[in-house]
Amino acid sequence: MASLGRVRLHHFSHEPDIVRFEPRPVRVPSDRPEGREWLNGPLVWAIETDWRGLYLFPRECPRILARATAWTTDADRERWFGDSRADMIAWVEASWMAAISGAVLHRYDFDPEGFEDLNDAGMWVSRRTVTPVANVRLEDLPAEHRLARVEVRPVDRLSGFGDLWSTTLHASGVRLRNARA
């Protein structure tokens, strides 16, 4: 478990004035392994700073992201990252690039006390109401991507990435239900 004194937790939202986060169930429940069904229940979700690149996008923007881990092979990194020195690659449909450039997000910062580490892609949850300790307006998402070492790669479609999930990279698909057919 990460030291609570060193971990920084965030929640990203388009909403500019959230004063309190109430636990709520996820909007679209996921199939969870036995014993982890509770993750679909009422929770407040947060992400560690190192994983913030997953959420530096408009909420409904479909995206596929890859991040190297300690177990990533040189071959997988070469195939999916090429010469990039980024920590994370994000593939998004080219039609979303203007929305990404024009979006404004709010980064809500949390005291990690009371959060549980899921030991999965920097995700933490709280079963109680959480009051943010800060609200930072993010007006330049491309600059935020650079700070987070995320390389955004526009593509026509998000199909054709099935092999990514069988690599040694961490792969995430976010809002893929919004992707073009």
Distance between the termini: 40 Å
Helix proportion of residues, in percent?
10-25%
The number of helical segments is: 3
Average pLDDT confidence is 93
Radius of gyration: 16 Å
Record field, number of beta strands: 10
Q: How do the helices and strands follow one another from N- to C-terminus?
A: EEEHEHEEEEHEE
Residues in β-strands, percent:
25-35%
Instruction: State the major sheet.
Output: 6 strands, antiparallel
Strand order of the largest sheet: 6-7-2-1-5-8
In one word, what is the shape?
globular
Unreliable stretches covering 5 or more consecutive residues? none
Overview of the structural elements:
With 181 residues, this protein is an alpha+beta fold. Helix content is 12%, strand content 27%. It is built from three helices and ten strands. The protein has helices at residues 74-81, 97-102, 141-147; strands at 9-13, 44-48, 63-67, 88-93, 105-110, 116-117, 123-126, 134-138, 150-155, 170-174. The strands form two sheets. It has a six-stranded antiparallel sheet with strand order 6-7-2-1-5-8, with no helix packed on it. Strand 6 (116-117) and strand 7 form a beta hairpin. The N and C termini lie far apart (40 Å). The model has no long low-confidence stretch (mean pLDDT 93).
Question: How is the topology of this model organized?
Answer:
Elements: E1 9-13, E2 44-48, E3 63-67, H1 74-81, E4 88-93, H2 97-102, E5 105-110, E6 116-117, E7 123-126, E8 134-138, H3 141-147, E9 150-155, E10 170-174
Parallel strand pairs: 4-9
Antiparallel strand pairs: 1-2, 1-5, 2-7, 3-4, 3-10, 5-8, 6-7
